[in-house]
Structure formats: structure tokens, C-alpha cells
């Protein structure tokens, strides 16, 4: 396993800057705050939403639930149409989530040709899943973009070797119209039993799922954050 990185702050402006550094046309796609899960607050999020990033605490309850799921993991039928990236770099879940969000949504079409992001995603798609971690570990542009972004947060960043109990995952609409969860710590992409009939339904579907699966499992926890990948500034 590679040496750990400094974790990223959950900040949509920083995520947009990270994306621009690596090659996403952020006039077409950018990240936005999700201020809450009430309908009125969800309605404030710019549409269409192409992916949702979710930050949550790694509690014993969540860990037990995920371990049980992994024991009976079944690959989605359209898994070959999804790009899944295993996480082997400590504290890199923010970057893994960003890669999952961009590569498995319409934002992939806004990755500019010849950029580090375009080259990395092409190499990852052409590599077996087991070889993808090495691509991430040896990508200097990815490491540098992560390091620069981690140093620009509004709060003091922890040390790279600090024990961090927060984790990012990404949600996208799968090719078959189901909610797909992408978490680099798991065995592969996870198809949730949640219908997402159209792209316009993704935000609501993801919000409802995180409430029932994550938040209700640990109702005393408050360290949650959601960020949407949506339209850019153009």
C-alpha cells in the first residue's frame, strides 16, 4: 500500500479546483453544496445533478453493515459499464470519490483530451481492476493535485498519517436506472435497490438512501456532508 495522503476537506470550491487542475472543463461541470436533505434545500441545488459525494463517519454500526454486505457481494449486471477504482492510498477517499463521480457520469465527456485526468481515466478503463491501484499510486499529477487541494482548505489539514474516521463515497445513476454506490474500500460497485428513473431523480434518490442506510444506522452522529456534481459556470 502507498504512503497515506493528507485528507481533502469537504468543500465544493476546492473540488472544482481539483477537477480543473487535472483536466475537467469546469465551465460545463462543477461541484455544489447540498445544504440539507429537506425538499426545499434539495431544490436549491443546481440541476441536473450528475453525481453525489457523501462524507460520513466510519462507525462500528456502519462497518458491521458493510462487512455483512461484502460477504455476499454480487457484481451489478452492468458493472462493465462502470469504472471502479479500489483505494489503496490512505486518506485518498476524497480523490477516489471525485474520480468515481466524474468518470461514471456525464461529466466524463467534459474531461479535456490530453490532460492528466483524461490519460488516467483511459488507462484505468483499459486495465484490469486489480491493476488500477498502481495507476493511481504512480500518477504524479494526481498526487500533486490532491496535495495542493488538501493544503487549501478553510480548516487546518491533519497530518497524512493521522487516523481519520471520515470517508467519502460517490453515488451515480447506473446504466440500468438504479442507484450505484462507489466506495474504493469495497469489493466493487454496489447496485442499491433504489430506482433512479431519470437523471433528474438522482439527487432525491441519493438523499433518501443516505438517510435510511447511513444516518438512521447512527442517529447520534452529525458528521455528514453531501456535495453535488452539477452544471458549471457556463
TrEMBL record:
Positions of the UCH catalytic domain: 4-231
Keyword Aminoacyl-tRNA synthetase (UniProt): no
Keyword tags: Hydrolase, Protease, Thiol protease, Ubl conjugation pathway
Name the UniProt record assigns to this protein: Ubiquitin carboxyl-terminal hydrolase
Enzyme class: hydrolase
Natural source organism: Malassezia japonica
Keyword Disulfide bond tagged: no
InterPro entries in the record: Papain-like_cys_pep_sf (IPR038765), Peptidase_C12_UCH (IPR001578), Peptidase_C12_UCH_sf (IPR036959), UCH_AS (IPR057254)
Family, similarity comment: Belongs to the peptidase C12 family.
Residues flagged as site, Transition state stabilizer: 87
Catalytic site: 93 (nucleophile), 167 (proton donor)
Entries under SUPFAM superfamilies matching the protein: Cysteine proteinases
Protein EC: 3.4.19.12
Gene3D superfamilies: Peptidase C12, ubiquitin carboxyl-terminal hydrolase
Gene Ontology molecular function, alphabetical: cysteine-type deubiquitinase activity
PROSITE patterns in the record: UCH_1 (PS00140), UCH_DOMAIN (PS52048)
GO terms, biological process: protein deubiquitination; ubiquitin-dependent protein catabolic process
One GO location term (cellular component): cytoplasm
Reaction catalysed by this enzyme: Thiol-dependent hydrolysis of ester, thioester, amide, peptide and isopeptide bonds formed by the C-terminal Gly of ubiquitin (a 76-residue protein attached to proteins as an intracellular targeting signal)
Site for Important for enzyme activity, residues: 183
Name of the coding gene: YUH1
